Task: inverse folding
């Protein structure tokens, strides 16, 4: 069993560390998108490179959209952990542009406020931030649209969400994945892999076993 993990905006691959610890002997490849230095990614990349085609892709937040854009159809399954196929217009573009102004003016304060809203205050030192890459990620949130890629998926999908998520609100998750397809977990803010790694791992492993048998 092999998992490919892609984190969301404002974080790095270390958000997966508690979850990876719960995956037993599974092979894990982590992609680090470069927003915050000091992650534990196996590689930093703008594509999927040599990731195995028979793996199960797991994305957090923007990581799901990144996977859809970069070929999630090559995987055996896709797990969305508070993810989406596009961010705007579910969330007003003005909120994203406000974040960009904050990054331009005060990267450390802006990201600390974001981490706090997610439920992960103090995620990393301000000195670790890559402001240029964070701006790139905000552009992705505004510009990228993975709806067609999601519709054309040939693999099974598991969608995990929480009702106290202020970054990806419940109505947004329902609109994207469908009420009947969502698995609601306890209050976890916007950092389920960090706050409830055991529960996330349980669902991910059960999903993997269900499509591998």
Result:
């Amino acid at each position: 069993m092999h998992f490919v993990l892609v984190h969301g905006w404002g974080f790095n691959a270390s958000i997966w560390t508690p979850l990876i610890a719960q995956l037993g002997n599974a092979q894990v490849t982590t992609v680090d998108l470069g927003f915050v230095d000091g992650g534990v990614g196996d590689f930093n990349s703008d594509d999927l490179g040599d990731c195995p085609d028979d793996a199960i892709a797991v994305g957090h937040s923007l990581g799901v959209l990144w996977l859809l854009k970069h070929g999630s159809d090559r995987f055996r399954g896709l797990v969305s952990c508070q993810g989406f196929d596009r961010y705007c217009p579910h969330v007003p573009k003005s909120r994203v542009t406000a974040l960009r102004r904050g990054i331009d003016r005060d990267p450390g304060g802006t990201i600390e406020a974001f981490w706090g809203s997610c439920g992960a205050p103090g995620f990393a030192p301000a000195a670790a931030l890559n402001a240029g890459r964070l701006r790139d990620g905000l552009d992705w949130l505004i510009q990228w649209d993975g709806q067609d890629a999601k519709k054309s998926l040939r693999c099974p999908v598991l969608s995990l969400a929480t009702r106290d998520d202020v970054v990806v609100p419940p109505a947004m998750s329902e609109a994207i994945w469908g009420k009947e397809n969502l698995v609601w977990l306890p209050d976890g803010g916007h950092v389920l892999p960090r706050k409830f790694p055991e529960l996330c791992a349980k669902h991910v492993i059960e999903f993997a076993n269900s499509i591998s048998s």
Strands lie at 2-6, 27-32, 43-44, 56-60, 77-81, 157-162, 182-185.
